[in-house]
């Protein structure tokens, strides 16, 4: 495997302790990090009740693995979590318009290739719509509020 969000959930290995063969590669534990992103967002804005996750809806690692972990974390923090899926950069403006209409207070950007390549546009749209944003280090460098690696 090269880089995998969760090799156990993805069915690549039976367990991390006993992978069942000679497997090398990296795992970023995206589901666990997704939950942590929600927790950090809540710490930055404790009164927040409406949060969003921006994700690439064509990436099963985001929709099948990471999103459920974020939903559990949001529920435990008494927050509603809305998902806003995009497929390409042209979809970002519409997603942010829907976030504004839904009165989203804070946003977590999934750590995903297409979204990572467009952090400048995402940070600008979040500022324009006055939505607290939390993403990777590059998002913060592009003007988003919180970066986490």
Characterise the protein shown here.
The protein has 149 residues and is of the alpha/beta class. It has a single domain (29-147), classed as 3-Layer(aba) Sandwich (Rossmann fold). It is built from six helices and seven strands, in the order E-E-H-E-H-E-H-E-H-H-E-H-E. The strands form two sheets. Strands 4-3-5-6-7 form a five-stranded parallel beta sheet, with helices on both faces. Strands 1-2 form a two-stranded parallel ribbon. Helix 1 (30-44) crosses helix 2 and helix 3 (92-101) runs parallel beside helix 5 (119-129).
Largest sheet: 5 strands, parallel
How is the quaternary structure best described?
A: single chain
| Low-pLDDT stretches | none
CATH architecture: 3-Layer(aba) Sandwich
The outline comes out as globular
User: How many structural units, i.e. domains?
Assistant: 1
How many angstroms does the end-to-end distance come to? 22 Å
Helix content percent band: 40-55%
Tell me the name of the CATH class.
Alpha Beta
In CATH, what is the homologous superfamily? Response regulator
CATH topology: Rossmann fold
- The radius of gyration is 16 Å
